[in-house]
From TrEMBL:
One of its GO terms (biological process) is lysyl-tRNA aminoacylation. Residues 199-444 form the Aminoacyl-transfer RNA synthetases class-II family profile domain. The lineage of its organism: Bacteria, Katanobacteria. One of its GO terms (cellular component) is cytosol. It comes from candidate division WWE3 bacterium GW2011_GWA1_41_8. This is Lysyl-tRNA synthetase.
């Protein structure tokens, strides 16, 4: 059984009529349809052919009767002829309607007669049964002998020519954005293929996809401010996870060697093109591998995904020419900070940090510490990096979950892939010394106690010690 949703599309234009007036007209049409005995919201469609097949398989289907369905995006009448363009998720096709072909409709099955076409509007969902043909102008069409109404919409689509331009409305009503803007519609298809490619890549390499909690009593795994919620059953506050990290790493401790999860994360912080309070993310953990193996793995992952989703390896992104066939640049954290700001990132005090921020016009709305100050400086550099590149040799004080290098404990075995000015990941060798991890957590908790609400929480259970 097919169920057709109630469609409540927002009208964003104002051409002679108000939204209420336009809706009232459609309500009148709805009532007239009901008076005819037409069910404007049937539960079943008899579609047997996708729209794209009509054009791609025209020679095969020419002269044969098929049934198609979709949203009407244009309704045109010319005397004893009418044309309805309908769109499904594969594309658009034209319904070619002759007056003599739509006589004596069976209203019981939501069929519409030629004289009833004025009750249809762009935005309605309809079904057409007829023979595949070409019009006199050579357009592939369905010469309809039966037209059914599947869903009568009550609000018009945005103006055909002006489109949908208001960014706020587009972000809040994605269903409307995908209906009007084909590029946005295709973007979400690519997004689905993007995550599908990740799953293929990991499973081919022996990783297990796991499900882990979204509600946590102690959030961790990232520098972020969490959302707080309350569980009534036990009268206790919980936090929406800011990362999948600590629970996936618990699974490594539980004996699994290769695990990953794709799912939502929540961070109660700023809004931008790179930061959404709720977003999808992937994290994986791999026992017996270090950060250098991780970098090679990530490079292979990028190569696999971009080829699978886009079928190419060269892109223009935000003005950067990004070529994944080239060797990835390796950027040393200390060297690039020294080059841009003239200080030793491993040996710096908070007052020097504040001075450098002021000299470089990097403004903050809070009293920065060393960790946040260094991160702000890096972000100003990062937007100039086209990549693909790896940022390496991060200081220990901004890497609370990364293992230190043996030759220099102030530097961690950590990397971040940078593409077109954005950080697209974070990887490192894991800390396997519980005492070291506990001390890192204590340092982070001290920062929280001083007012840094993006610092990590002290997680005794994960830290591996029974008491603080």
């Amino acid at each position: 059984m097919f169920l057709f949703p109630y469609v409540d599309i927002v009208c964003l234009h104002n051409i002679m009529s108000t939204l209420k007036e336009l809706r009232d007209v459609r309500l009148e049409k709805l009532e007239k349809l009901r008076e005819l005995g037409i069910n404007p919201y049937p539960a079943k469609s008899f579609r047997n052919t996708e729209n794209i097949a009509v054009t791609e398989r025209f020679e095969e289907l020419h002269g044969k009767e098929i049934t198609v369905a979709g949203r009407a995006i244009a309704v045109r009448a010319h005397g004893k002829l009418a044309f309805i363009d309908i769109k499904d998720d594969t594309g658009k096709v034209q319904l070619y309607i002759k007056e003599q072909n739509l006589q004596n409709p069976d209203y019981k099955y939501s069929e519409v007669g030629f004289e009833d076409l004025h009750l249809l509007d762009a935005g309605d969902f309809v079904e057409g049964t007829g023979v595949v043909t070409k019009t006199q102008r050579g357009e592939v069409s369905i010469e309809v002998t039966k037209l059914r109404l599947l869903t009568k919409t009550l609000r018009p689509l945005p103006d055909k020519w002006d489109g949908l331009k208001d960014r706020e409305t587009r972000m809040r009503r994605r269903y409307l954005d995908t209906t009007i803007n084909e590029d946005v519609y295709q973007r979400f298809i690519r997004r689905s293929k993007f995550w599908e490619a990740h799953r293929e890549f990991f499973k081919e390499r022996g990783f297990l996809e796991m499900n882990i909690p979204v509600l946590e009593s102690v959030p961790g795994g990232a520098d972020a401010n969490p959302f707080v919620t309350h569980m009534e059953a036990i009268d206790q506050d919980f936090y929406l996870r800011i990362s999948q990290e600590l629970y996936l790493k618990r699974l490594i401790g539980g004996g699994y060697q290769k695990v990953f999860e794709i799912g939502p994360r929540f961070r109660n912080e700023g809004l931008s093109d790179e930061h959404l309070p709720e977003h999808m993310a992937m994290e994986f953990y791999w026992a017996y591998a270090d950060w250098e193996e991780g970098m090679r793995f990530i490079k292979d992952l990028f190569d696999y995904v971009v080829n699978k989703v886009y079928g190419r390896i060269q892109f223009t992104i935000r003005g950067f020419e990004v070529d994944f066939s080239k060797d990835w640049e390796v950027i040393d954290f200390a060297e690039i900070m020294k080059k841009h700001y003239g200080f030793d990132v491993y040996n710096v005090g908070v007052e020097e940090i504040k001075k450098i921020l002021k000299e470089n016009n990097i403004k903050t709305d809070y009293d920065v510490n060393i960790q946040r100050g260094v991160d702000l400086m890096w972000k100003k550099i990062r937007v100039t990096v086209g990549g693909p590149a790896f940022l390496v040799n991060h200081p220990k004080y901004i890497s609370p979950l990364s293992k230190s290098k043996v030759e220099n404990p102030d530097i961690t075995e950590r990397f971040q892939p940078i593409i077109a000015g954005s950080e697209l990941g974070n990887g490192w060798s894991e800390i396997n010394d519980p005492i070291d991890q506990l001390e890192r957590f204590r340092e982070q908790q001290a920062l929280r106690d001083q007012g840094d609400y993006e610092a990590q929480w002290l997680d005794i259970d994960y830290g591996g010690c029974n008491s603080p």
